[in-house]
Design a protein that fits this description.
- With 220 residues, the protein is an alpha+beta fold.
- The chain has a single domain, classed as Lipoprotein localisation LolA/LolB/LppX (outer membrane lipoprotein receptor (LolB), chain A, Clam), CATH 2.50.20.10.
- The chain is built from four helices and twelve strands.
- It starts with a helix and ends with a helix.
Length: 220
């Protein structure tokens, strides 16, 4: 789905560019947290995020149903996806068929460290604003959401509310397809148990390169 891919691409770039301030790195400007989202538009469902160590440890699970209508025909697709991030490694799992893949983001993490090393929160926020405008985004100002003073901006037809590097609300509209993520609760500096970031034992994770090779073999 193009609208979801656009959102995920921006969020991935945002997280990558802000990876530092301590030796281990940072993705967010908040030490730890737990966020619950509702999904809307063509995709409905829920998204739950737990993170620690400024986002260098992150657990995300999405349960959703996507409905696409073309020429009067409707197609529904259900998903249950898990993403676990530990430093410069990400594990992705499809919990409906118990398959998974692993990929490294070493280059992105290193770039983030170089850009944000030794910066204060105010300097990081200034870099956040600059990155948005450098990517062609337009900053509209600030808006209070869930009691937080969020940066409000858009990237074309995609609108965001973001707090300290953390997207709390997004609305993507593209070629008749809409996708929204809206945080319903946000607990900052939460205590997150270490076992939250453990990998599922019933899933064998393939390296991303191995997954691509398998896909090529299937299509040959």
């Amino acid at each position: 789905m193009k609208s979801k891919n656009l959102l995920f691409l921006f969020l991935f770039c945002s997280a990558s560019i802000f990876a530092q301030q301590q030796q281990q790195g940072k993705y967010f400007f908040v030490k730890s947290g737990h966020i619950e989202y509702t999904l809307g538009g063509n995709t409905t469902g829920t998204k739950s995020v737990w993170f620690d160590n400024y986002g260098m440890l992150m657990y995300t699970i999405i349960e959703s149903t996507t409905t696409v209508k073309v020429f009067g025909f409707s197609n529904k697709t259900s998903e249950k996806k898990l993403e676990i991030r530990k430093g410069n490694q990400i594990w992705l799992a499809n919990l409906l068929d118990n398959t998974g893949s692993q990929m490294g983001i070493e280059d992105q993490t290193e770039i983030g460290k170089e850009i944000t090393s030794g910066q204060t929160d105010a300097q990081l926020h200034a870099k956040e604003r600059k990155m948005i405008t450098d990517m062609g985004g337009e900053i509209e100002g600030y808006e209070t959401f869930l009691g937080r003073n969020c940066l409000k901006f858009n990237m074309g037809s995609t609108k965001f509310l973001q707090f300290k590097g953390i997207p709390l609300k997004s609305n993507v509209a593209l070629i008749g397809i809409t996708y929204t993520e809206t945080a319903t609760s946000f607990d900052t500096n939460a205590t997150v148990p270490a076992n939250k970031f453990e990998l599922p034992k019933n899933i064998k994770f393939q390296q991303m390169s191995e997954s691509l090779d398998a896909l090529k073999n299937e299509t040959n």
